[in-house]
Amino acid sequence: MNIAHRTAPKERASSHDAKQRQAERQLTIPAVILLSISVIASTNYRAGDPITAWAIVWSAAYVLAFALLMATVIRGHARADELQKIVQLRAAAVSFGVTISGLFIAALLHSFNIGKPSAMIHSIFTVSILTWLIATQWFTRKATK
Amino acid sequence: MVHSESNKVTNTLPVLRSSRKWSQADLADKLNVSRQTINALETGRYDPSLPLAFKIAQLFGVSIEAIFTPDEINKRSS
Questions:
Q1: From the CB of residue B27, how many other CB atoms can be counted at a distance below 10 Å?
Q2: Cβ neighbours of A20 (radius 10 Å)
Q3: Residue A119, CA distances (Å) to A1, A5, A114, A124, A126 in order
Q4: ipTM more than 0.90?
Q5: pLDDT for A19-67, tens place per residue?
Q6: Which of A14, A66, A131, B28 has the CA that lies 20 to 30 A from A39?
Q7: Does A40 contact B at CB distance below 8 Å?
């Protein structure tokens, strides 16, 4: 029996993990709050409506939320250890492939006047983000279990 | 490197860690890596970079070869 492989059922995270989670929370929480406000505010806006000060504010909130989320990703990558960096880069590569494929398909459909470009861009964006999140989880599980 | 089946490396990391009564989290703290990385190293799913391998060897006061051995060499000597 290999005693060495047994660990406590819920072993505590290392301080490296704790620091990384704290860094992510610092940016992710405000980003999610801003994004939620923007999404709620955008439900009142219809294309063609006059641009009001409020519309400018929630549009800026969208951009700021996205910038904060990107800053989280970049900071997370900078603080990641070597295995985490490999996992992140693999997930980014998969997500990039999905994005490029989506854009190619969208361009093809658009050339035949099929579908709405704005809807296609939203779909590609959503699928890419989901792919990235799922790929990160999958590669992490593959590397550690 | 996340290893392929053709390039396996065996390691004595779990034994060395247990001899010092360290948890995986303790070892991760000392090496400034995540606990996930220590787990992956011990289960053989990940081979460390050279700097990390040197750091591990220095921490335990042994040579790298005493900790990490390619499976080919293990098979030849058995």
A1: 24
A2: 19
A3: 57, 50, 11, 9, 11
A4: no
A5: 777 766 777 777 777 777 777 766 666 667 777 887 787 778 778 877 8
A6: A131
A7: no
Q: Which residues of A68-107 are buried (b: 16+ CB within 10 A; e: fewer)?
A: bbeebbeebeeebbbbbebbbebbeebbeebbeebeeebe
- Pair type for strands B68-70 and B9-11: antiparallel
Of A84, A115, A135, nearest in space to B52 by CA: A84
Q: Kindly identify which residue of chain A lies nearest to residue B46, measuring between CA atoms.
A: A143
A interface test, pick of B33, B36, B41, B55 with most A CB neighbours within 10 Å: B36
Here the tokens at position A25 are 């929370």
Task: Please report the residues numbered 56 through 115 in chain A whose beta carbons come closer than 8 angstroms to any beta carbon of chain B.
Answer: 80-84, 86
pTM confidence score:
0.73
Asked if B14 and A4 come within 8 Å (Cβ–Cβ), the reply is: yes
**Residue found by looking up tokens 């992140």 in the block:** A88
